[in-house]
Amino acid sequence: MSKSILLEKIEACRQEMILLSDEYELTSEAVISSSMKLDRLINEYLNYSMN
Question: Per the database entry, which stretches of residues form a coiled coil (predicted)?
Fold first, then answer.
């Protein structure tokens, strides 16, 4: 996956998490799941950048 696609996925996931956090508690399963997905994408991007 290219860096630009990763950045697009990160931004989309970030927006999703913001929308979910407006609708649900920050400790809800939906928000936490979205946050974990965002973390994975960011880590993938950082690992991609370091190689």
Answer: none
Rounded Cα distance between 33 and 4, Å, is: 23
Hey, what are 30's tokens? 């939906």
From CA 51, how far away is CA 44, in angstroms rounded?
11
Instruction: Name the pTM for this structure.
Output: 0.89
> For the chain, what is the domain count?
1
How far apart are the C-alpha atoms of 7 and 2, rounded to whole Å? 9
- Longest Cα separation, the chain: 38
- What amino acid is encoded at 16 in this protein? E
**Residues 16-50: tens digit of each pLDDT:** 999 999 999 999 999 999 999 999 999 999 998 78
